[in-house]
Every structure is written in structure tokens, then in C-alpha cells.
Amino acid sequence: MNHLFRLSAGLFRPGTGVYRRRPVSERHVSLVASRLFSSAPENNELGQLIKKDKVVVFIKGTPAQPMCGFSNAVVQILRMHGVDDYASYNVLEDQDLRQGVKDFSNWPTIPQVYFNGEFVGGCDILLQMHQNGDLVEELKKLGIHSALLDANKDEQKK
């Protein structure tokens, strides 16, 4: 993947909330909050966290209620591709998490997107990948079929 950056060590505070989007039905998605850590985190806990799910995003707010335009753009891009099963972490809940993920990726801004434990980039990178078609290919590598492929087939039939 062209847009990967080398990961460095980072720390964040115990008790950070995670929001996992899981389909409840075809039209509804629930957000389930869970506590991550009960003891002091080790340096590799953030590394383990980003590897637990195929797609992990650190955003301001939640997927249901993004609190900044860039976070909203990431959520919308994923939604357009039909990606609804991903882990999302609200960095506004914990300043240590917010700084820890920046240090971990060596990327200064939020949102941050990870695929299979590897840093992809922020909103600008994800938008560029969406625009040039790379996102469809990267999702395919994750075993995720982009909904945009189906939309394009429907357009061609018309």
C-alpha cells in the first residue's frame, strides 16, 4: 500500500471507549461501547487494538455523530463503500488517546484510518484513495466488497 507510514510506539490511558458499528438490520446500526483496559496499558496495546479489526478509525465523535468535518468525511466515504463493520474510537473522550494515536502513527491529525493493523492515513489520503479507485482495491484485499462496484454496475445497465 503506497500510503503506509512506519508505526512508532505510543501510549494511551486505560478505560478508553470503543464504538463498534454492527448491523442490527438492513437499515439500522447500533453503537456498542465497551471498556478496553482495566490496568495500565503497555506500549503494544495500541498496536494490538488496531489489529483487532480489519478497519479501525480514530475520529472526533462517533460514526453516528461525527464532531468535525474531516471525521464526517471519513465516515461518509466508508458508508459509500458499504463498510459498516469497523471499530471507531472517539478521541474527544480521552486526550491521552488523542495524543497517543498521533504519536503511534507519527501523523499529526485526526481522523486516522487503519486497514489490517497498518496505518493508511487521514481524511485527505482516504479521499484521494476513494477518488482514484485505490480504496476499492484496498478493501478487496481486506475481503470487503465495495458497494460502489454494485452501484457502477447498476448505472451501466441503464
Automatic annotation (TrEMBL):
Classification via PROSITE patterns: GLUTAREDOXIN_2
Glutaredoxin domain: residues covered: 55-120
Any Pfam family matching the protein: Glutaredoxin
Origin: domain of life: Eukaryota
Keywords: 2Fe-2S, Iron, Iron-sulfur, Metal-binding, Redox-active center
Name by which UniProt lists this protein: GLRX5 protein
